[in-house]
Amino acid sequence: MTLLTNRERTILMDLARQVMPRTGKLPAVDAGCTERFEEMLKQAPMGLRMGLRVSLNAFGAGSILCATKKSKERYLQSWLQGGMLRRNLLRAVLIPLKISSFSHPLPYRALGCSYGFDVPKSETRRRWRDKVITPGQIDTKEIEADVVVVGTGAGGAVAAKELAEAGLAVAMVEEGDYFTRKDFDGRPARMQRKLYRGLGMTVTAGNAIVYLPMGKTVGGSTTVNSGTCMRTPRKKQEEWKRDLGLEDLGPGMLDDYLEQVESFIGVAPASRDLLGGNARVIARGAGILGLQHGPLRRNAPECEGAGLCPFGCPTGAKQSMDITYVPAALRSNAFLYTGLKAQRIIIEGGRATGVVATTPGKKKIKFFAKAVVAAAGSLFTPVLLKRSGLKNRWIARNLSIHPSGQVTALMPGRVDGFAGIPQGYQVTDPALDSVRFEGVSTPLELLAGMLDLDGRNLMRFLDGYRNISTFGFMIDDTARGIVLTEADGWPFIFYNLNRRDLLNVKSAIARLARIYLAAGAGEVYLPVRGHRLIRNQSQVKEFESCNLKPGDLELGAFHPLGTCRAGGSPRISAINPEMETWEVANLYVTDGSAVPTSLGANPQVTIMAMAAKAAKRIAARLVH
């Protein structure tokens, strides 16, 4: 099946040659990049496919009038340096185009890097795998259980395991498929198509475009995160108790559950032997500036440093939900139904009694149960509740996302930042208590997609790939967004970065730039329009004094939270302290949407602890 017209392929190829010219080590763009681009599009939701084609044709309408090389360059720059809408329309095309251009062996060989990961050809068959049911294996329209759990991420998998081990019959309903080590070949573009929703190109609308990638697979985003495990900050628990009436989530009240989940997934500090070149560079710069730094805590006790955490751990070391809690649930009283999308919750007499789900072929399956646990994630659980008729005003509101970014530096010596743990190191700056600095490692094709450079600047920067170091930051945001609706699996999210958060982002970028320059960087790439490449501290100072706008930034986010927040009253929350909705009995929420506020810390163990606590109470009600 072809998606692009011949004219669209011509526009795409001309754009690729302009943005990625042959200049140094890296080979010229090959004709296969348009085929790989089209292959990516086939896996995207219809809305994204249409949007990318509209953007491509809008750009092509003007480029066709450019007769000379110089006029084409001027035209391209008019888009790249234009207003936020125009710039991001082109960027939406350039990101998958760059990824497609570099996602094959030749560029890697040219740089002396290995390509891919040797996966096992087969795996030991586990008996519990017989309890994983795909759509084609379902030969009935109705399924009965004690509890239906929608979603298998940090909240859903923990709840399912605890409820199953309490003696309840549990049906887990998961929209994604169950991938295992033999599927994790370490190729980012391929893994994005398999493991992420919409190629990882979910975005927010508002005064800045923020990319918000989410896992769509068994294990949810725990399968594609970097394994960082941080305990719930005490100041947040104090806030929940003081402002929201959540005595049960106050200081110390989650400790037993945090210890329980940390033990089950093997949380420990990252091994210093596997921290890699990024950590060495950052440690040098942070040390010169007098900042605290050290390893992060992670759930990968047998880590081998493959450097591929966000694309499915190929060694099975990362103890994500697909490796730990889901199999534990299946070894007990649970069944897992993959490839099913929950459409609505069945509500009878003010009580949740089941879930209606559909297969990819739109076959309808009804699950009947005594209770329903909604854990489809902070962007989809509120949509599911609204679609089921719930009216509470806090549902789909209060969205926090931890706006994030990364700074990239070209160092004078070899870094090989792709080798080792991608996110194993952190820096603490007491002057920026709303910012967390955490490591990040970016494969070649994704680095190319992320860098908003073009032409010779882009290729020169990528030629030095083995000398490149990257490090990230995230903001404990005070802005709040809203999930408006969902269509074709694509959530529509509105989020405006406020002034306070904007200044924190600016300070975070400047701090990382200073760390890199102190460490000896020759060039530092900032994710900021008008301040791309800087080479000295005076340019950092110039950046710090600029009039920055949210639309000037290139941001991502990985921790959507709060869209069905817990609280002590329906006036201020969507669910009660026991994680049950105020409006419908026996309907519980145990994913990130239940977390009341922005955490300012990676949330997976907080979500897991809250889910374990809720499951204990659900089981006490249902087990007789």
- Proper CATH architecture of the largest domain: 3-Layer(bba) Sandwich
- Shape summary: globular
| Average pLDDT score | 93
Strand content: 15-25%
The share of residues in helices is 25-40%
Radius of gyration: 24 Å
Describe what you observe in this structure.
The strands form six sheets. Strands 8-16-17-18-15-21-22 form a seven-stranded antiparallel β-sheet. The chain folds into three domains: 6-102, no CATH class; 127-227 and 230-266 and 307-398 and 559-622, FAD/NAD(P)-binding domain (3-Layer(bba) Sandwich), CATH 3.50.50; 269-298 and 404-476 and 498-552, 2-Layer Sandwich (Cholesterol Oxidase, domain 2), CATH 3.30.410. Helix 5 packs antiparallel against helix 14 and helix 7 runs parallel beside helix 12. The chain contains 18 helices and 24 strands. The chain is of the alpha/beta class.
